[in-house]
Amino acid sequence: MPEPSDLRPNETRALAALFRAGASSRAALARDLGLTRSTTGILVQSLAEAGLARERSDDMDTDQEGEGRVGRPGILIEIDGDGAFFLGAYIGVDWIIVVAIDLAGSVRGRASRPFVGAGSAPEDAVNIVAALVGEVIAQLPKAAHLSGLNVAVPGFLGEDGTTYHAVILGWHSVNLTTLLAGVLGPDMPVLLENDANAVALAETYRKRAGDQAAGDSLVVLIENGVGGGFISGGRLHRGHLRGAGEIGHMPIGDEGFIHDARRPGRFETYVGKDALLARYAYINGRAVTFDAFIAALANGETAATKAAADWGRWLARGLAALTCALQPGRIILAGSGNAVYPFVSAQIETFLSDYVVEGYPLPRIELSQSGMDGPAIGAAFLLHQAALLADPPFQLRGAVQR
User: Is this structure's pTM higher than 0.90?
Assistant: First the structure.
């Protein structure tokens, strides 16, 4: 695939329009782009010759203006998925995942391994990522055009713009890009992204334009810690140093359910999985795994129900503060910790309504649909989005054939 800088603006716009529509007639594409049919025809031919778009028969009997008719099927233009591939990875507390999506936005390859992230060595994670990248590339068509790798990590870039901090992994001032380049080679462009930001894009990128709430959404990623990603006007809000969304460190109380002498009372010390299990152990007198806690909650155990109610009250308090600051159309609860929400959803919605000033619009609360692959898929989608934007937030260079 030609790099974004090599495509003419109208070619990029045409690809973006085809991605939104899924497939389109030449007439509909011309209307969408505000161009003549002849100009649109030249664009389509150019994209087809570059291997980025293709024709297919329309299964419905419609003419080019979308009106029903009887006769031979019409011809639709769609993105050719094999035109380019985008790699996304996730380095988590419990696992590492690598996925590949194609130009049409479909997942075409996946590989994962368990990983003990807390206190891990960054070099170990990087070697696993490299091995999984090799496994995923082997699942793609021969000579697939790779447009880069974006790695989602639970942390943020330092002020120097090159080193990374992932507190929950025990990583500080780690130059992940350099480490990854050392094992993947100089021909593979590598970017880094916060995991919650990546999930935010995974949850909203393919939503239809008519879903206004999708364009202004808050994702709360609940794992051992808590992260956040905010989509504003369909784009990630990144903040001054690209580190916006560290809502887990937002102070909302005095202590928390787990001890933190330096920064007590942070959001994640009340609603992260570690905090929830600590609360349950305090009430019940014994420690259990998260899966065992969910089973106890499903069975109606009193201690589990009490711990979940306490969790829900503090989650609602944090969501109320974020709602007042950001006014999202919807809040998406992601990560494995969201399994608690269905048991206390009514309480949380009541708490949230009570915490927010009367008459203030409340967002709808949903559960993530992207699952454990969400951070990796969202990381790959960020590369895809950059390729389909006329003004990408970063430039992809050196895409390679594998």
Answer: no
